Amino acid sequence: MNPADSSDNPDSSDNLEPDQSGATELGGTESVAEEPVKPVSPRLELREPLTAVIETQDALDDVCAAIEAGTGPVALDAERASGYRYSQRAYLVQVRRQGSGSALIDPIAFDDLSQLDSAIGDAEWILHAASQDLVCLAEIKMRPKALFDTELAGRLLNLPRVGLAALVESQLDRSLAKEHSAADWSTRPLPDPWLHYAALDVEVLVELRDLLDAQLVEAGKREWAAQEFEALLSFTGPPTRKEPWRRTSGIHKARGRRALAVVRALWEARDAIAADRDITPGRILPDSSILEIAQAAPQDLQTLKGMRAMRNRGPRRFLSQWHDAVEHAMGLDEKDLPTIGQRFDGPPPPRSWADKNPEAAARLAACREVVARIAETHNLPTENLIAPGSVRALAWEPPAAHTPEAVADALAAAGARQWQIDLVAAELAVALDAPPAVPETDKSDSDRPNTTS
């Protein structure tokens, strides 16, 4: 599982401001009641000794036979090399089943892991943050027939922290270290401490699944979870961005369409090099260097070579490619330059709605009020009750008839599950017909992504 969930990082509140120290004006100190310190949970440990990584066909045959002989659901995880490699391929697959024990498999040693997929058969997969791993597992021909996502279950239960370490802590009273989550898992051989860390990621997934499942049943949310898990079976990754180069960090510093054309050309050249060499793009040429070159717009190879962005050996290796990209961008006709603003297929960012479409801004405010109220009633995060993007699309361009049926159809077309539609469609239809006063500005465009879509 990679990258690490930021919710696993404990908050630090050790440093107090001077006025919080309990000091009095006379220089004495008041007696301040100390909050009880929560005892540190015992570290999670492996129940069986760590076994060798599976790298041969005979060893894989043994693992598959053991998985087939096991019982119950199968805990799975995959480690990638995000931040090091361009691809999102799996570099280690961890699997555990009751009666079978755990196994660590090197997928690079095999054409694919369809044999393991067949051994699992129709058994339920247990994944944490399934959307992070399903795509890389599909690349090696592993696709679940049924699954349970422990992170998504935690979200539906509205637990305060849903990272794996946080859930292991709150549900099983064990601490789970995550110090190797951002490691380069394409490293060979993998160090033993990394393998120990990876094995722990599936050690208690079965127990965690059962605890969360019982809580979903008790909360009356098990059917909601079932629909969410079913939707994940067809997940193929996030949608492709039309202009991914606009995600370049600091792009606002590129002034004018010509500078944006340089950013685009450099980004595309870097992306091609990174894909060819399977190296994460930022290690080929940092975003900051792209912006530096775009702002300077060097006219010749020597000027480019003398720039600070080219001081390091890495970027200099591809000097001719960067020069060709800049030259291409500088030679474009005006009609071929990128626009200053990004084109949107759907609604623009809500912060601009009050000026561009005040009626839509009013509808969005009314819809958000409805979503927040229903989410609070059912103890759900708003983004798991209904995708924020679906609400924005509905408010920007509502159906001709503001009926519950029409709203339900619009939400279903946007990918909403039936349980979500049942909870919100009728009240959103009312909100579309009775918006509040048009807001002056909308500064609340901070919706978290809907991880269940």
Summarize the structure.
The chain has about 450 residues and is mainly α. The chain has helices spanning about 55-70, 115-120, 130-140, 150-155, 165-170, 190-205, 205-220, 220-230, 255-275, 285-295, 300-305, 315, 320-330, 355, 360-375, 380-385, 390-395, 405-415, 420-435; strands at about 70-80, 90-100, 100-105, 125, 145-150. It has three domains: about 55-230, Nucleotidyltransferase, domain 5 (2-Layer Sandwich); about 245-335, HRDC domain (DNA polymerase, domain 1, Orthogonal Bundle), CATH 1.10.150.80; about 350-435, DNA polymerase, domain 1.
Q: Secondary-structure map with pairings?
A:
Elements: H1 57-69, E1 71-79, E2 92-98, E3 101-105, H2 114-120, E4 125-127, H3 130-139, E5 147-149, H4 150-156, H5 164-172, H6 192-203, H7 205-218, H8 222-232, H9 257-277, H10 287-296, H11 301-305, H12 313-316, H13 319-330, H14 353-356, H15 358-377, H16 382-385, H17 388-396, H18 404-413, H19 418-433
Parallel strand pairs: 1-4, 4-5
Antiparallel strand pairs: 1-2, 2-3
Helix pairs in contact: 1-2, 4-7, 5-7, 9-10, 9-13, 15-17, 15-19, 18-19
Low-confidence stretches: 3-31, 442-453
Number of strands: 5
Instruction: Count every helix, treating DSSP H or I runs of 4 or more residues as helices.
Output: 19
CATH superfamily of the largest domain: Ribonuclease H-like superfamily/Ribonuclease H
- Structural class of the secondary elements? mainly alpha
User: Which oligomeric state applies?
Assistant: single chain
User: What gross morphology would you assign?
Assistant: globular
Task: Note the gap between the termini.
Answer: 19 Å
Query: SSE string, helix = H, strand = E?
Result: HEEEHEHEHHHHHHHHHHHHHHHH
CATH architecture of the largest domain: 2-Layer Sandwich
Stated plainly, the CATH topology of the largest domain is called Nucleotidyltransferase, domain 5
Described by strand count, sense and barrel closure, the largest sheet is:
5 strands, mixed
Percent of residues in helices comes to 40-55%
Order of strands side by side in the largest beta sheet?
3-2-1-4-5
Strand percentage = 5-15%
On the 0-100 scale, what is the average pLDDT?
90
CATH class label of the largest domain = Alpha Beta
Count of domain modules? 3
What does the radius of gyration come to? 26 Å
